[in-house]
C-alpha cells in the first residue's frame, strides 16, 4: 500500500542537498508590500562553467511547481527529474559547453529557497506568517543571487509560465542586466480569468481540514492539507492541458477494472488522481498559495505608466512564444506582448495539442527557439577564450 502523503513535500533541513548550492542574503530583503523578509536563502543549481569575463551566464527560470533541477535524474534531494533535461547538455540547445546556466528556486518556493515551509524568525516554519510576494519580489531575490555570483549582465534570461513572468520583470525592471530575452506562454499581466482559476485552487487548499490555518508542517503523514492540494492540482492540470487533447487520449473510457456507474472512475479521473498524488509528495501547500498569489500580482505596467510604456524600457533581442492550444494563457496574450516589445520578433507559435504544458513537452520546437535566441546573445557577445 502506498504510504500516506507527508504534511509537506518541501525540502527541509537534513534532507539530501542534491546538487543545490545556496546563497544566504546578509540583510533583509525589501518587498513591494513595504515589509522586509529576513534570512533569505536562495537555492540554485548551475550547469557549465562561467567564462572569466562572466559573459556566458544564462538565467533559466522555472514555472509554478518547478524548481532549480533543470536537468538530471530524480534522486536524493531531487524528487523529480530535470524539467528541461532533454534541452540541457553539451551540444543541446542549452549547450553547457558554451553557456553557464543558473537556475534558482523561486522565492516563496519549497525546494531550498525561503518559503512558508522554511524556518521563520522563531525557528518554526513561517506558515501563514510568510509575507505576500509579487513577481517583482522574486526577481529582487534573484538580483541578490546575480550580485553574489558577480554577474552584472545575463547573456540571456528565459522562462515559461511563471518563469516567463519573472523573465519579463528582469527585462523591464533591469534592462541593463538582461541581454536577450525568451518568454514562453506568459502574458504581460494576469487576467481576471487566470486569477479566478487560481482562486478556485486556493479555496480548495484552505477548505481542507488539514490546512489548520497554514500551521500544518509538523503534522503526521496523512494529516496535512494533501486533499486540498490534490484538488488544486486537479483544477490546475485541466487548465494546463487542452480539452481536445484530453478527449483524444481518454474519451469517455472507464479506468480498467472500474465501472463509473458503480463508484469507479473514468480514465481521465485516474489521470488527475495520479498527478494530484505526485504533487502532494513533492510540494508544499503554503508555497502553492504563495506562488499562485505572486502570479496573480503580475502586471508589468503597474506603477510604470502602463504596459506599453513599461515594455519600451527593454530594447534588446527578444522572442515571445505562445502555444496554439493554451487555454490558460491564450495565444492572443503573447501576440500582444510580442507586438509591444520593441526588440521582439513577431510571435512564435508552438504547435501542440497539449495546451499550456507545451512549453515543457514540445522540446524540439522549444529547443529551436532557444538556439535562435542564444545565437543572438552569442552574436552580441562573441565567445571569450575557453570558459
Can you tell me about this structure?
- The protein is of the alpha/beta class and 387 residues long.
- 33% of the residues lie in helices and 12% in strands.
- It contains eleven helices and ten strands.
- Strands 1-4-6-5-7-8-9-10 form an eight-stranded mixed beta sheet, with helices on both faces. A two-stranded antiparallel ribbon has the order 2-3.
- Strand 7 (154-160), helix 2 (162-173) and strand 8 form a beta-alpha-beta unit.
- Helix 1 (135-149) packs across helix 2 (162-173) and helix 3 runs antiparallel to helix 4 (226-240).
- The chain is globular.
- It starts with 20 loop residues before the first strand and ends in a 7-residue tail after the last helix.
- Mean pLDDT is 96; it is low at 382-387.
Amino acid at each position: 500500500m502506498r504510504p500516506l502523503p507527508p504534511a509537506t513535500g518541501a525540502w527541509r533541513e537534513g534532507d539530501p542537498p542534491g546538487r543545490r548550492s545556496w546563497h544566504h542574503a546578509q540583510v533583509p530583503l525589501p518587498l513591494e508590500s513595504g515589509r522586509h523578509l529576513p534570512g533569505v536563502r536562495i537555492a540554485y543549481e548551475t550547469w557549465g562553467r562561467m567564462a572569466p569575463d562572466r559573459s556566458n551566464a544564462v538565467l533559466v527560470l522555472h514555472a509554478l511547481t518547478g524548481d532549480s533541477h533543470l536537468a538530471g535524474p530524480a534522486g536524493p534531494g531531487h524528487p523529480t527529474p530535470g524539467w528541461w533535461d532533454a534541452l540541457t547538455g553539451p551540444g543541446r540547445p542549452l549547450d553547457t559547453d558554451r553557456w553557464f546556466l543558473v537556475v534558482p528556486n523561486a522565492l516563496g518556493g519549497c525546494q531550498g529557497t525561503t518559503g512558508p515551509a522554511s524556518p521563520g524568525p522563531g525557528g518554526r516554519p513561517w506558515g501563514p506568517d510568510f509575507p505576500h510576494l509579487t513577481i517583482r519580489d522574486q526577481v529582487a531575490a534573484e538580483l541578490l543571487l546575480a550580485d553574489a555570483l558577480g554577474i552584472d549582465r545575463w547573456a540571456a534570461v528565459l522562462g515559461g509560465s511563471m518563469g516567463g513572468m519573472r523573465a519579463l520583470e528582469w527585462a523591464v525592471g533591469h534592462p541593463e542586466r538582461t541581454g536577450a530575452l525568451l518568454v514562453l506562454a506568459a502574458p504581460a499581466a494576469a487576467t481576471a480569468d487566470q486569477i479566478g482559476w487560481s482562486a478556485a485552487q486556493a479555496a480548495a487548499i484552505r477548505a481542507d481540514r488539514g490546512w489548520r490555518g497554514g500551521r500544518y508542517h509538523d503534522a503526521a503523514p496523512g494529516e496535512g492539507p494533501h486533499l486540498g492540494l490534490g484538488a488544486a492540482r486537479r483544477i490546475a492540470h485541466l487548465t494546463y492541458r487542452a480539452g481536445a487533447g484530453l478527449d483524444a487520449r481518454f474519451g469517455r473510457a472507464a479506468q480498467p477494472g472500474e465501472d463509473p456507474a458503480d463508484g469507479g472512475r473514468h480514465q481521465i479521473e485516474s489521470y488527475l488522481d495520479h498527478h494530484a498524488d505526485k504533487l502532494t509528495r513533492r510540494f508544499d501547500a503554503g508555497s502553492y498559495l504563495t506562488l499562485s498569489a505572486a502570479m496573480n500580482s503580475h502586471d508589468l505596467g503597474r506603477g510604470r505608466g502602463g504596459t506599453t510604456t513599461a515594455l519600451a524600457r527593454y530594447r534588446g533581442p527578444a522572442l515571445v512564444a505562445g502555444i496554439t492550444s493554451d487555454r490558460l494563457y491564450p495565444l492572443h496574450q503573447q501576440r500582444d506582448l510580442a507586438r509591444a516589445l520593441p526588440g521582439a520578433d513577431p510571435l512564435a507559435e508552438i504547435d501542440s495539442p497539449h495546451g499550456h504544458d507545451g512549453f515543457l513537452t514540445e522540446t524540439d520546437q522549444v529547443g529551436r527557439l532557444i538556439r535562435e535566441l542564444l545565437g543572438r546573445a552569442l552574436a552580441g557577445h562573441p565567445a571569450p577564450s575557453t570558459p
